[in-house]
Write a structure and sequence with these properties.
mainly beta
């Protein structure tokens, strides 16, 4: 199976969280969440068929 790179971003926080994956390499992201609300997490790097469905709606929640 061929590895296809993916990206990960959080809507509203693209300037802080917008990373690309590397095969077999963990990614650690630290940032300060400074907006209250529910935000989508989505694939930010076009990866082929199904890319448009790679979204977790309201999966990142910041309470104030």
């Amino acid at each position: 199976v061929e590895f296809i790179p993916h990206g990960l971003a959080i809507s509203g926080y693209e300037d802080k969280v917008n990373v690309n994956t590397a095969e077999g390499k963990p990614v650690v992201v630290s940032f300060t969440a400074d907006k209250v609300g529910e935000f989508d997490i989505y694939c930010s790097l076009f990866c082929g068929w199904g890319h448009g469905f790679m979204k977790l709606e309201k999966a990142f929640v910041v309470k104030g």
